[in-house]
Amino acid sequence: MSQFVESERKYKTHEGEDVYSKGELMIANYLHKHGIDYHYEPVRYIDRRKWVPDFHLWKDDVYIEYLGMAGDETYDRLTKVKMGHYYSAGYKVIYIYPSEIGRVGNALNYKFKRLTERDLL
User: Fold this and answer.
1) Could you tell me how far CA 83 lies from the centroid of its own chain?
2) With a threshold of 0.85, does the pTM exceed it?
3) Which domain holds residue 26?
4) Which of 69, 99, 115, 118 is the most exposed place for a label (fewest CB within 10 A)?
């Protein structure tokens, strides 16, 4: 999506990690609280193009993308492109929308189970 710089990471998780949005903060804190290991913003290349998913649950090889600007026409168009690349590369991705962030644990657990056929926790 847009190119972020480190200085724009204005939210700090309970573990002291800097993230870009309140939604990412809530996801990271949930993962930390439940002892779920992840990498934040791992760089991936698909068809020689750089992609940076929000989270990678490396033990399960599942990615999480927080779609914090969903509803913005340009963002939605670029998100569809990103989704297509992830799909073609065979990535397992959980997409979390702003409307789900208040119940992020339920959303993550439900979507994780649909992808992997087992519980997240």
Assistant:
1) 12
2) yes
3) 6-116
4) 118
> For residues 9 and 19, which has the higher predicted lDDT (pLDDT)?
19
Residue 93: its pLDDT value, please?
98
Residues 83 and 93: beta-carbon distance below 8 Å: yes
pLDDT band at 7 (very low <50, low <70, confident <90, very high): low
Whose CA is closest to 104, among 52, 2, 34, 38?
Answer: 34
- Please report whether residue 1 resides in a domain: no
Total domains in the fold of the chain:
1
What digits encode the pLDDT tens for the residues 71-115?
A: 999 999 999 999 999 999 999 999 999 999 999 999 999 999 999
d(CA 121, CA 82): 28
Q: What is the CATH number of the domain that holds 28?
A: 3.40.960.10
